[in-house]
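Incident log, support desk, overnight shift.

02:14 A customer reports that sequence design results differ from what the structure should imply. Their input is reproduced verbatim below. On-call engineer (initials T.W.) acknowledged and began investigating.
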């Protein structure tokens, strides 16, 4: 479950997030929509513990997003709006790195990772720096899903993907 209570983060006297409240139940799909600069990405970054709210509380599965950020990041699948990968790594090397970092071991998880690579048609040969932006987004989606998280947080997950890939 995701829950925000009275979350406020001011950028200036007129801009920011003010007294935001919502909850998302387990199994529920929630679309967080609004105009540009409405604070959607900022809210998501708060949920992932990347920035702190000035006031209020945010939790994922009962964990405080501000004080338990590392546990949330370990247990949640997250696709950021802007993809940031280790460009100098080879794709297979990066996948192995993420696997070890997340503590993903065992045949079941290896099968899931391989199924996701196939489903999202991620080319695993070559360096990340040589991938298109759409392929990098697909790789990010695979790494967000490959540990079979209970919670997914997706910020503009289809941006940069072609229409066929968006439907997957």
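02:41 Re-run completed on a clean worker. Output:
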């Amino acid at each position: 479950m995701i829950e925000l209570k009275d979350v406020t983060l001011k950028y200036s006297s007129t801009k920011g997030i003010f007294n935001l409240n919502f909850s998302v139940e387990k199994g529920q799909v929630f679309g967080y929509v609004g105009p540009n600069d409405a604070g959607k990405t900022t809210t998501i970054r708060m949920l992932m513990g990347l920035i702190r709210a000035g006031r209020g509380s945010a939790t994922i599965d009962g964990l405080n997003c501000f004080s338990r950020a590392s546990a949330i990041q370990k247990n949640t699948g997250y696709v950021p709006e802007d993809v940031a990968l280790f460009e100098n790594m080879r794709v297979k090397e990066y996948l192995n790195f993420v696997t070890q970092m997340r503590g993903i071991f065992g045949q079941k998880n290896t099968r899931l990772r391989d199924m996701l690579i196939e489903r999202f048609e991620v080319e695993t040969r070559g360096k990340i720096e040589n991938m298109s932006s759409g392929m990098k987004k697909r790789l990010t989606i695979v790494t967000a899903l490959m540990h079979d998280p209970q919670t997914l947080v997706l910020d503009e997950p289809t941006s940069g993907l072609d229409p066929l890939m968006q439907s997957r």
